[in-house]
Amino acid sequence: MRNRIESFTGSRHFRLHGVADSVVAAVAVPGTGSLANAAIIDLGGTTLVVDTFATLEAAQDLKAAAEHLTGNPVTYVMNTHWHSDHTSGNQVFVPGAKLIATSGTYEMMNTFARDRVAQYQNNREKMLESIGEAELQCGQETDPKLQRELAWENATDREFVNMLPQLVHTVPSVTFDQQMTIHGSNRSAQLITYGGGHTLSDAIVYLPEDKVVVIGDLVLSNHHPVLANANPHEWLSILEQIESLDVETIIPGHGEVCSLRQLQDVKGYISRIITMVTEAVQNQRSIEELTIPEEYRAWYFTTYFKTNLSKVYDLITASEG
Ligand SMILES: [Zn+2]
């Protein structure tokens, strides 16, 4: 499959990165309708796609790439978690493919996420207005790295909001708890959940023969992990369980294809945030005074640093109160 990457017409939403003969990562191009990464896995006569991007146009390109690379229609799509940058393209793949997620992700998508999409669809005008305001603010940002990130964010938001009239919220039809395996004629893919860390329920795809894990947002490379919906302590324990698998390559939820080193980085980051907030609370200092530690300053998703601090602050103070 990997040898057909060069003959793919390409997509403005992602670049294809061959990870193994039968595993190709679709790495998001910032500022387009993809936002998150996806993966295409050829199991032999059976194609598994992991995650479906933030817009229908990006998902259509992903489907075309999967069909080109494998020469087959897509058989299964798994959503690693419910966030819209991993699930919005679902409708592009049905009814041809079966959509799979954990029971927890299915529940979230069928309730909270369904309502949220309906709210977005009813508030498009307002959303476009606030994107316009954000674009003006972005022009005044003096830090060049932050300005570039804000410009990407605004461009992606615009594509997302422009797509909303065509979006049909599409939830998985097959669910699993703990684990399920998909067997193709060449290899098997293990769909595994160790519970919820980044969200209420996170799933990974493990390919033992290739020593590859498609990990969703449990690991981001060169990006601040996003703790807004997280259980940080569970997240750390999930990463420890993934470390005990035989893994060499990680396809992260955002950023370039990486290795266990970036998994270690995420563990370090989460622990660091917990320590920083705990010390601030003990010393009765405001978390507003905390700045991004040196080793994370080159990472993207800069604006999530502050929201990560307040999420952990809320968790710490709630458990004390
Ligand atoms: Zn996410």
Poorly predicted ranges: none
**Structural class, from helix and strand content?**
alpha/beta
How large is the share of residues in beta strands?
15-25%
Strand order of the largest sheet: 1-2-3-4-5-6-7
Helicity level: 25-40%
Distance between the termini: 55 Å
| Strand elements, count | 12
Mean pLDDT: 97
> How many helical elements?
9
Largest sheet: 7 strands, mixed
In short:
The protein is of the alpha/beta class and 321 residues long.
Describe this structure in words.
The protein has 321 residues and is of the alpha/beta class. It is built from 9 helices and 12 strands. It has helices at 56-70, 84-87, 103-110, 112-122, 124-140, 144-163, 232-243, 260-282, 304-320; strands at 14-20, 23-28, 38-42, 47-50, 76-78, 98-102, 174-176, 179-183, 188-193, 203-207, 212-216, 249-252. A hairpin with a 2-residue loop joins strand 1 and strand 2. The longest helix has 23 residues, at 260-282. It is globular, with a radius of gyration of 19 Å. The model has no long low-confidence stretch (mean pLDDT 97). Bound molecules: zinc ion. Zinc ion (ZN) is lined by residues 81, 83, 198, 217, 226, 253.
Give the secondary structure arrangement, pairings included.
Layout: E1 14-20, E2 23-28, E3 38-42, E4 47-50, H1 56-70, E5 76-78, H2 84-87, E6 98-102, H3 103-110, H4 112-122, H5 124-140, H6 144-163, E7 174-176, E8 179-183, E9 188-193, E10 203-207, E11 212-216, H7 232-243, E12 249-252, H8 260-282, H9 304-320
Parallel strand pairs: 4-5, 5-6, 6-7, 11-12
Antiparallel strand pairs: 1-2, 2-3, 3-4, 8-9, 9-10, 10-11
The structure holds zinc ion.
